[in-house]
Amino acid sequence: METFSDGVLAIMITIMVLELKVPRGASFTNLETDLPVFLGYVLSFIYIGIYWTNHHHLLMMVDTVNGQILWANLHLLFWLSLIPASTAWADEHPLTTAPACVYGIILLMCSVAYIVLQNLIIHLQGRESQLAKTLGKDYKGKVSMVGYAVAACVAFIQSIASYAIYVLVALLWIIPDIRIEKAIYSAEE
C-alpha cells in the first residue's frame, strides 16, 4: 500500500511540474508575470509533500491492513489526484472565485479522506493501540478541515484571502507530525 501510494504521489508531482511553462521572454521581468503560476505550484507541491510525509509516518505504525483500509487509501489518493487539475485551473484563472473555492473543497476532501483512513486503521488496531494513543484528539486535523471550509467560503468574498488561509493551514503541517515520530522512535529504542 505504501509503495503504491508513493508512486501515485510521485506521478501527481510530475504532472504538476509538467504544467509549468518556460517564461515567455529572457528577462527577469518575464519571471514576474509567471510568479503566480509558480507560487500555485509551490503551494500544491507542499500540500502533496505534507500528505506524503504524514501518510508515510502513519503507515509506519500499521502492522496490517484490510480491504476497508485499502479502499480508504484509494479514496485519499483520488482526492489528492485532483490537486494538479485544480492547480492548473487556478493558474489559468488566477484569483477568481470558482478555482479558489474548488481548491479549498479538494483540500477539505483530502483532509476528510485522510481522517477516514486514520480512523479505519485505529479501528482495526484498537482504541488502545499505540497509534490511537499517539494521535489523541487530533486537533490539528480538525483545525485544518475548518480552515479549508472557511477558505472555500471566503473565496466568494476575496479569493486572495482564501489562498492566504490555505498557506496558513499548510504552515501548520510543514513539520511532520512529531507525535507519530516520537512514538516510532521511542518504540525502536
UniProtKB/TrEMBL annotation:
Keyword Ion transport: yes
Entry keyword set: Ion channel, Ion transport, Membrane, Potassium, Potassium channel, Potassium transport, Transmembrane, Transmembrane helix, Transport
Cellular component terms (Gene Ontology): membrane
Coiled-coil boundaries: none
Signal peptide: none
Keyword set includes DNA repair: no
InterPro entries per UniProt: TMEM175-like (IPR010617)
Name of protein: TMEM175 family protein
The organism of origin for this protein: Bifidobacterium fermentum
